[in-house]
Amino acid sequence: MLKFQQSDKMIGLIARRFRMLGEPFRLRLLQVLESGEKTVGEIVVALDGNQPNVSKHLQMLYDSGIVSRRREGTSVYYGIADPVIFNLCDLVCRSAAEKAREDFDDLQAVANPAPRVKKAV
Amino acid sequence: MLKFQQSDKMIGLIARRFRMLGEPFRLRLLQVLESGEKTVGEIVVALDGNQPNVSKHLQMLYDSGIVSRRREGTSVYYGIADPVIFNLCDLVCRSAAEKAREDFDDLQAVANPAPRVKKAV
DNA sequence: TGACAATATTACCATATGGCGATATGGTTG
DNA sequence: CAACCATATCGCCATATGGTAATATTGTCA
Asked: Is A121 helix (H, G, I), strand (E, B) or coil?
């Protein structure tokens, strides 16, 4: 924010980044890669996904500059290219947890409405 | 990351948050709200959008706990409920800018391939 | 070069999402 | 209550996106 008052292009780029992280399967992909480089095959096994789907999402993350790619023989190793995403996830995680807690409290409040005195049930 | 190895539900929540930010129009909405509470009408004018669309996106942001809502007469004021989003945007902005710079450098490198000696064009 | 393994690409379907006009709802004022 | 704001919701369409099977590509090795 603040700095991208600028062009619509910049906003588009930012949005794209967020959209990349806005997909559960891709988050799980990144989660798997957090412990280090992995081949497509290894990732497929780890996530119990199907290969074309994994490749597709990896491609998207690669195009966005979030993951790196390295070929070795017939295998391709993917890794985290931009560790900042972990900071992002961390922030969002905390924030989402906070929100969830508030929602829960609100529900509680509805269930036990303002016990002014002792409670009369 | 790290902390949401846990449930798929948590991953879903995180993804949803990111998805909320993964839409140019919503980013612009938040940009407008950064300078303070605004009514729907004011936002419509500021973004030159149409009212139902603005309301819809505001509703989504509200459901996600990103913006707050306050009624005053027939108007409704929206504001930022979770300022963390600005940190997020800031991080992504920097990161995206970095990526853009790298892409540019790569292009340059292709255009002017390794001038070993003087240059032979 | 042929056979095989790993990964990428394509094609297609189902669903999700955004934009927008028409309409409903909620609140104010007379 | 009627008329009139401001906002929310609905219905529809066009497009984007994710999942998956079939197929193409790339690299290795004999």
From this structure: coil
